[in-house]
Amino acid sequence: MKSLYLFALLLSLLFVACGNSSSNDNENQSTDSTQVVEIEQIAFDTTLTDIGRLLAGMSSYSDSVCLNIQNTAVWKEHEQAMEALFMKAEGKNLKSMRTWAETELPEGRDSSATLWYAFSGPDYLYANTFFPAAKKYVMFGLEPTGKVPDLSSRADYSGLFKSIQRSLISSLSLNFFITKDMMQDLRKDQEVGVLSLLMLFSAYTGHKILDIDYLYIDPEGTPVLCSYDSAKSSGYTTGVQMIVLDSLNREKELIYLSFNAENSAFDKNTGLQAYFNNLDGTIYGMLKAASYLMHYDGFKSIRELYLPKLTTLLSDDTGIKYTKMTEAFDKVQLYGTYSQPIDLFDYINIDDLRQAYKENTAKDLPFTYGYGFGKKVMIGRK
C-alpha cells in the first residue's frame, strides 16, 4: 500500500510539472490558485500596537494590561462610541474617498514616495485614505506631540477615553479637526496628544507599530531620536517618529513635527528649513481645512519651500490659492462645485477659483473634503 501511494504521488508530481511547462508557453494561462504563498511574519511591538487598538475601540492582540482594560465596562462603552464614530465616517466619506482615489489619484499607490501633509495635525486617517501606499509621511501642526499613554499607571480610564472621543468627533463626522477644540483637548493631558491619535489611526487603518521615538531637529536639519524629556528641553523643533507595518507588511515611517509655520517663527528656524530642504525622492502634497494660511504672505516662507518640492498636490480651496496652484503646477484638475467660503472665513477672496470653475470642466466629487460643503477640490501635477 505504501509503494502504491508513492507511485501515485510521483505520478501527480509529474503531471503538475508537465502542467507548469505548458502554462509557461501560454501567457493567458491562469496560475494555480491552489498554491499557498506563505507571508513572512514580521515581529512588531505588541504593547504599542495594542495601546493604539485599545484607543481605537478595537480588541487587543496580547498585551495583558490592555486585555484587562478591554474587559471593563468603561472600555466597552468606549468601544461602542468609537464604532459609531468610525461607522459614520465610513458612510459619509471614507468609503467614497477610497473608491475615488483609486481612479483619480494613482499617486496614492506609489510605495516609494513621501507624502508631505502640511498643517495636518494628527490627521493620519485621511492621509492614509488618499495615499495608502506612501513609504513616508511628513506631517506638522501647532498641536503638541504628547506621550505614549501609560495605561498601567492609571486608576481610571474614563477621562482618557472621553478625551479621545471628544477630540475625534469633528474629524470623523466633518472630515477635519477643529483647531480651537483640538488645542484644548490635546493640551489638557500629555497622553491625549497627537501621538495618541496617530497610534489610534494607525490601528484603525490596519497597521502594526514597530517602534516609536521622540525627536528634535538639530541646527543642521537632522532628526535626533531621544527621550520625551530630552526633546522638550532641546530648545529646537520637536516631534515624534513612528515606524509601522501596513497590512501588506510594508514598512512605513510617520513623522509629526510641532511648530509655528508663520514667517516670524519659521524664518528663524534654519534647522527645520534644512530638514524640509533635505527631503528627497518623489514627494506628494496634501492640504485640507488649512484655514487659508498659505493664502497670506505671513506664511509665504513655508509656501515657497513647500510647493517646489511637490510633484502632485491634493488640496481644497483653504490650502492654496488657485493662482498659486496654476503657477506651481502644469496641470490643475478641479473637482466638485464652487461655493463661497464658510462664514468664519467670509472675508477671504477666492474670485480666481470662482472664475476657474466657470471656465473649466470640473469632475464629480462624491464626498466632502474640508470646511462646509467641502466640494472645492484641486489636484495639481507637474
Written overview of the protein:
- This protein has 382 residues and is of the alpha/beta class.
- It has a domain at 310-382.
- 42% of the residues lie in helices and 16% in strands.
- It is built from 14 helices and ten strands.
- Strands 4-3-5-6-2-1-7-8-10-9 form a ten-stranded mixed beta sheet, with helices on both faces.
- The longest helix is centred in the first third of the chain and has 32 residues, at 73-104.
- The model is unreliable at 1-37 (pLDDT under 50).
Number of helices: 14
**Secondary-structure-derived class:** alpha/beta
Helix % is 40-55%
- How much of the sequence lies in strands comes to 15-25%
Largest sheet report? 10 strands, mixed
Q: What order do the SSEs take from the amino end to the carboxyl end, as H and E?
A: HHHHEHEHHHEEHEEHHEHEHEHE
Please report the distance between the alpha carbons of the first and last residues: 70 Å
Mean pLDDT: 87
- Rg result: 24 Å
Widest sheet, order of strands: 4-3-5-6-2-1-7-8-10-9
Number of strands: 10
Residue ranges: pLDDT <50 for 5 or more in a row?
1-37
Shape: globular
